[in-house]
Batch of 2 targets.
Target 1
Amino acid sequence: SERVCEEFYRQGDLERTFELEISPLCNQQKDTIPSIQIGFMTYIVEPLFEEWARFTGDSPLSENMLCHLRKNKAKWRGLLLKQHSKSNEHSGQMTEKEETLSQTLKEEDSP
């Protein structure tokens, strides 16, 4: 995760140097490793795994893959929430984004 994000960030830094528009996921001032990972899982991995599950008829393997994906995604969301909490400690309040993320985590953790 860190290595691919370092590569993305280097690309963004070069784009900034040449005054180009910074590509998605390449702006280290805006894009954190947890947010990049969550986006990758949401838009690339999850649809692939769901299609695999449909193709295999919800086999034990596909169920296991989706279960681990959900757990992995929840851990990254927890890290993202911690990052947002640390960056906003001075205000003493949760931002709207943090509240939404916190609610999503609670919903995913409940059976």
Target 2
Amino acid sequence: GKRKQWSSFEDKLPKMWRYPSNAPFYKIIVPTVDTMRYNYLVTALVSNQNPVLLAGLVGTGKTSIAQGVLQTLDSSKWAVLTINMSAQTTSNNVQSIIESRVEKRTKGVYVPLGGKSMITFMDDLNMPAKDQFGSQPPLELLRLWLDYGFWYDRVK
């Protein structure tokens, strides 16, 4: 069989990188070993439909990495839904936004519109206000969904 060969991320860095002169400053991502690594890992996880959580300090490029990966997805196969969280975001908001982008297949089974796979990018996950118990209901909804693969119908 064919032998697989390890290669380092350093080897994958562009040799003569130049920033695009027409790009706004805030959109310039300098390729580094770290940006290459994060792009590779996030792309691999997303391609295999695994949830991804990027954690880090403010201004470390989490949103840029995520958006960069989302832009490389085949739009004939993937629908991208972006939700920007804020202190006003409620679990009802999150659920209704996601439900507005899916259609009912059978009883209790919903799928993304157009037969695509849907990826939901949620930015500023830390922002929703805490309730009286110190929990963040929008995050509890996401945890329920990721852990059990469903959430409850709020109408019935």
